[in-house]
Amino acid sequence: MDLFPNDDFSSQPLASTSRSLLPSSSAASFDFALDPSLSQQVASSSRLGPSYDDDSDGGDESVEEDSDDDDDDEDSDSDDETDAEEEYRLEMTQGGGAKRKKGGPVAGLTEMLQDKGKGKETAQEGTFAGFDDGEELGRLIHAIRDSSDTNVGGRTLLDKEFDRTIEEEMEGLDDPLNNGMPKKNKRRAYGPRPEPEPSTEVKDLLGRANRHYALGEGDQAIELLTEVVRIEPSLRVPWYTLASIYEEKGDTEKAVGFKMIAAHLMPVKRAAVEWASLGAQSRDIGLLQQAIYCFTQAIKGDKDDVDSMWDRAVLLKMSGSIGLATTAFTALLNIHPHDPGVLRELVPLLTTSNLYGKASQLYLSAFDHYRSICPHITAHTLPLISSFGPQDLETIADILNHLGMHARSIEILKRGVRWLQGREQETGWEMLDDDREFDLVRKTRVGWEREARFLEEAGVNELDVRLRLRLGVARMAKGDAEEAQRHFAIVLQEDVAEFPELFGAIGDSYYNRKMYDDALDVFQIMAECDDTNGASVWAKIGLCHLETDDADAARECFEAVAEAEPDNLKNKMHLAKCYEALQEHNKALLLINEVIATRRKQDAGKRKTGPRPMTKEARAARTADRLAAEQQRHQEFSLALITLKRLEPSVNSGDIEARAEWLEVATYLVDAFRETKELFPADSNKKFTGVQLQRSWKRKGVQEGDLELQADEMANRLERRMNEESEPLIEVDSYRGIHFDDWLELIMKYSILLTKNDEIVAGQETLVHVTAASVFRQSPQRMLAIHLARASCYAYTKNYVGLVEVARWIQRQYQYQTDGLRLLYAFLPGGSAAVEAFNNGPLQKFTIRQLRTIDAIVRGAPVKLAVNGSIVLMDEKQGAGADKEEEGEEGATTTGGTGRLEDKFLPKKASPAYNLGYGQMLMVSRSYASAIIYLLRAYDLAPKQPMINLTLGVAYLLRAMSRQTDNRAHQIAQALAFFSQYKALKGSCQEVEYNFGRAFHHLGLQSYAVKHYEACLSLAAVERQTHALSRMAVDDDAGAANADDELDEPDDYARLAAYNLSNLYMLSGSADLARAVARKWLAI
After folding, report:
1. Contact between 302 and 335 (Cβ < 8 Å)
2. Local structure of residue 863 (DSSP, 8 states)
3. CA distances from 660 to 9, 191, 313, 663, 893 (A)
4. Is the per-residue pLDDT at 613 higher than 80?
5. What is the three-class DSSP state of 705?
6. What CA–CA distance (Å, rounded) separates 767 from 787?
7. pLDDT by residue (tens digit) across 1042-1062?
8. Which of 184, 271, 623, 630 has a CA-to-CA distance to 710 between 20 and 30 Å?
9. What is the spatial distance between Cα 206 and Cα 227, in angstroms, rounded to a whole number?
10. Global pTM exceeds 0.90
11. Which of 73, 174, 197, 181 is nearest to 121 (CA)?
């Protein structure tokens, strides 16, 4: 997307061209902008004068070089020549004149000079096919003889013939994609006939004319010379004399014309220098097409005249002949492969023709070529790479980024800079996935000491700000936003007035990545600078506000743009969209009608090939067709749902084929649900009232820039909405004939089945995405179901971090209640991964905020409802948990709207559960002293709770065994006191005996530990025997009907106790006892 298509600063060059044969004061500037297709084509300067328009289509034009051979070589082609050609040569040899013949300016000349396709042109011979000089000369001679004007310098048929000659020269051009090679079957070119001996009359006239010229009597000399060229136009001398006279008179244009006639009378090879000089003179007086023609003739005579080839190519580019210029520069590139100067001119032409693939191929080939011939750049080897440098790397990066080859762009930029800086041997940087090679300060990245530490010891490598910008753009497009922002932050330190195109590209990159806030910050910087502030910047600011649903701010921006550019139709469309979002439908419709009327006025009298605005009848017919299509879609969805229900039994039984078919059908339904924009409005409180039937602006096959069709569709939508405003909106509880509860069940089943099918990311992404649907977001029950489904998938894949995230969401929705905290404990089983997820910094911060808010509410602090519907203290601005770590977190806003404070749960007393939970989190992070404080608070609130007593005993025990303890014996005594109270409350059971054994084991009191482990095993043996007898009794009493029913297995700590006990026996040297315990309790 081009951010600044019409701004002065948008086309500022990032890499200037290096070679131009034009004078410095009149050289054309073709700079390569950030987008390769935006090459700045500047018209010829005032010194060159007005340029000729090229009426031909540049895309269909082609250029060919003449393939003339020497005069001696022409005789070798006689075998394929016609009798007419033989007759022509005989007449020329005998000095006979040409006879007039119908159908051509000279008798039989056209037929005699037909090319037989003999001879092939090499790449060095250029791209333009030569004229038949004899035919040209014959045409010009008859133009002179048939002229009724005695003044040769007047606007006679001669001038018209010259113009026609140039036009025909430009028509016989080759395909621009043929590398400048000529087409087959071109006419062969022959040199002019020998200059005839002047007659006595002509000699007399020449002598008199020369005397008048010598005496300064130019007009008399012109009159006599006019008669000479009328009698014998094949003489060169009178033409040169006429040119000299007109040069002295200051009429350079006529002088050049006479010299061109004289040059046509000379052999092609001898006239090459003259033609080149004439080309330069024609260029200097602004006759670009004539200059191109002259340079072409010069190339015919000298196939190695690279300067003429370059001048001709530059002039073709200046004249707007893109196709011809492309072929001309391609021919030059064939002569000088990989030349940077030629590439800098050719590549913008290719990108203008949308040939990015060929442009990248040429530049990458040059890059590899120069690296191969000069692998190590030094002061002595620098000439080997010509002028290839950073500006060429910029162009390569622009092209690759345009083609979406962002990884390749990053690779070329980093390797190219390393090569140009003479650091090509520093390949160690390629081991890293980031761009720390070009950091301004070393040892600042997180974890630098673990990742290639030796590279961080290297010096700082410079990187041009333009190259850094491209590197950042490629990183952003690749999805590495953090790395891109590092580069952008450095670029943004530059002066925006000096590098406006870089700032615009950064804003564009953020905008395309949907990072609208960051894009807005960049565009605001540009708006604050007088040199870059303009309507297009405000338009971009308005687009950012529009994307962030700030329609008011967007309207202000677009209204300011409309003030500066009242004829900007695209801006009016954006402004109408703002009015529509603000429910100002009348204003929006007025603007849309204005756009439609303006476009129709602009198209008046022009041939219109695109779609035309629809009439009301056509709109009604289209709406009817779409209604019919909508009904058909309803039927398809209903049949698909029936198919899913039919396949469910087979899927539940494990049928793989049925599962694949079920997933295929469900994918079709779920994707259709997720792609419906009406189900995902920007305003989550907006009720779903059905699917709109109009098409989207950016649908496939319609260009965004087609304002006429966009305006038509928007007018249709506005008219429909204005008609609906008079009627109350009716909320719809189904989509495509399927109730939203059924949709929810389908989506949850689909995601869970994807997870079981090892498509974990797709399953989670589906569940996360549908939480943004308003029909689900407005229902707390549906949102809870979705998050519990997420928890199921996380539990299946043992993703404990995801389980913690779901538990936090539930705690936010059910504030200050203990259910979410209890679910957190239920979600996390034992194991190091679960403990690591529980030892989470954001989770600890969230829990302590909840705990402090509960304490404040219990003390009577006033509360209110925040904007997101959460309960906060009166002096707080955001909801609970709304810190920097949670601002962008999914689901941060409570479901079901804000509601009323009276309907919310408010704690009446302090919560022992939150104190216990936070204390346990501190224990896991080994902050035992702090943990004991919160655990004692929980003990004060619930002293008879066994879990609190057990946790306090463990906390004191762990603190006693740490190095920072000040009184180990006292803390051990406190720990055992809480353990004793825990045993008194819980009673004798496996859990108590195991925990006591584990405590003594931790203290190193092995005999006490063995005692409690053995007691745990004894209780386990009794409970297992009792459970077995109970199961037998159930089986006997219930019979076959309930044979499948099983009693719940008892809580069993036997294996844990047996494992620890066997270890103690082994450490004490009792291997037999350890073996016996293992065989009885640990064997499978």
Report:
1. no
2. E
3. 55, 78, 61, 5, 37
4. no
5. coil
6. 8
7. 444 444 555 678 899 999 999
8. 630
9. 10
10. no
11. 181
